[in-house]
Amino acid sequence: MIDVHAHFAGEGYEFPAEWEKIRAAGVKTVILASDTPAHAKWHAEFAKTHNGCYFTVGVHPSELENFGRETLETLRAMAADEKCVAVGEIGLDYHYPDPDKRAQRAAFEAQLALAEELSLPVEIHSRDACADTLAILREHRGGTAHGFLMHCYSYGAENLPDFLELGAYFSFGGVVCFKNARRAVESVRACPLDRILSETDSPYLSPFRGEKNSPANIPVIVEKLAEGKGIPLPAMIEAIGANAARLFPKMLPEGAFLQNK
Ligand SMILES: [Zn+2]
Fold this sequence. Notes:
The protein has helices at 17-24, 37-48, 69-79, 101-118, 130-139, 160-165, 182-190, 218-229, 233-247, and strands at residues 2-6, 29-32, 53-57, 84-93, 122-127, 148-150, 168-172, 196-198. By secondary structure, the chain is an alpha/beta fold.
């Protein structure tokens, strides 16, 4: 099983115990999503010494204080790492009052251009900004030419076709396990099987409210996804594995051993 979006850097997990717990849960692949260059560096170091662990490079829309040409240079250099599989998480976040929409758009566009230049897929964060996200993606088709993921998809089934038309994949996390998850479960049901992925967004959004999340919770989430699609669990696991391999071609087959790593 796979977690396509988790954060380890600066989150206070205890390693190696946490990693052992994740592997014991049957989660063999984890993509560490970065929100700043400093966290990307941390994730790169961790991925280097852990089989089945990969990372992304990118700056989150809420972390743009020092974003500029130098930032892009740093991201570009880190992306050359064999374990960097995507640009992300990048996008728009209008959740908090008075978002700097211009700055968010500029950083999103610059990082889409970087993904295009590097031939990498993109992990997109989009919160309360559905229309603007779609508009930017439509204007910059080259930026998602190598595929993109709507991480923690939250816009409801009615918006799925607009993203699908642009070639999106969708990942769902612990929210599908909440008691009031009707909206998220409807999206899972409406999402084509060859476009679904599983994530935790650890340490956030645990399926067990109030707890610190971990990629070790992926099995609980994948079970909900199988239930939502009305298919057996092994079929869901297989579909997610195939989807991940298609979207993140720099990843090695599950369980593959990196020499000297
Ligand atoms: Zn995230």
